[in-house]
Amino acid sequence: MNFTPTEEQLAVQQTARDFAQGEVLPKAAEIDREHRHPAELVKRMAELGFLGIAVPEQYGGSGFDHVSYVLAMEEISRACASTGVIMSVNNSLVCDPIYRFGTDAQKQEWLTPLASGRLLGCFALSEPEAGSDAAAQKTTAVKNGDGWVIQGTKNWITNGPVADVCVLFTMNDKAAGHKGITAFILPMKTKGVRVGTPDDKLGIRGSKSSQIFLDDVRLGNELLLGEVGGGFKIAMSTLDGGRIGIAAQALGIARAALDDSVAYAQQRRTFGKPIAQHQAIAFKLADMATEIDAARLLTLRAAWLKDSKLPYGKEAAMAKLYASDVANKAAREAIQIFGGNGYVTEYPVERHFRDAKITEIYEGTSEIQRLVISSYLSKGQ
Ligand code: CAA
Fold first, then answer.
1. Which CATH number describes the domain made up of 233-378?
2. What pTM value is reported for the model?
3. Active-site annotation holds for 23
């Protein structure tokens, strides 16, 4: 077992840290306050190669591994969780399935601009009545001559209002259950695609999400992703990887809460000394740091397993379950450490508290992660 990052991994981490601290952090409060999509930061992430980190260079990506992806995601999410999730969705939920299931022509046409950041992607699985129960898809795809006609509504689609391309899931054979689900690559400019009003959210307010309405949308067979009826496995295996990205986002939020708390506790004085010297506060900081490290190890292990082409679904679910819990706990403790200052928007920790919550919900709630983990256990894995 070797815990030493490679020189390449350290270089990616340093580049991400410099970008996050120098360019992202100074804007994070404003992005949150204004509910603003940080287009200029997305452009910079494209220039730095962060929108297709693990995609081979041949298809416009950076050709790094998933450990590097986790290291970069933590740094960027530590500065701004909204910017982090924009990056995560494009990498994990859009580039990854097109890389794994797309034809070479699809990779040339769609993956290359997505991984290089010329286009931005979204992933449309959830529906008003299909969130945790992802197989209950109501969006229909009906074969029509050489192509397909699609009708339906997708919900809470991260990047939806700003995406150029969507990895879309539909039901083409209801009787077949999850084996009737089919995936497509949907150019968002296709006639019949309409994006709803951006969701008004508790946290990650710079990450635009919305409904997507699909009304008589016509797609050719060249936009089928994988096989007819193979969509559910594409969605599930994609989410396995996505959960590593969200675990890394949660890690970034948790670290922001800890770093801000340590700095505050060293300068805020009560009863004649900095509050960091009161054991009540010092122990909170110690617990936060320990739990963050444990979450980081789980997340890096899942990424390493993916890089090693070993099974990682259970470990990715464990990483997301634990890291999202740690992020919420760390943000809650940070507010307690800041006291009254933690409760006002002048200080950053109330933002961390609001941003942390979503990590227990999207890409599978904590309850779904427990379901996934326990189903591996019941199979003796
Ligand atoms: N990889 C490949 N195949 C998988 C798989 C995986 N990880 N997990 C399940 N499958 C396969 C199974 O092997 C099975 O195949 P067979 O029939 O051939 O044996 C098939 O899929 C059905 O499996 P299940 O019976 O376990 O499926 P289920 O309907 O009971 O659902 C679930 C399982 C884990 C609850 C699943 O529905 C799930 O993950 N739900 C949560 C959905 C989710 O995470 N949504 C997030 C939306 S995206 C998002 O949030 C993005 C964003 O905005 C940032």
1. 1.20.140.10
2. 0.98
3. no
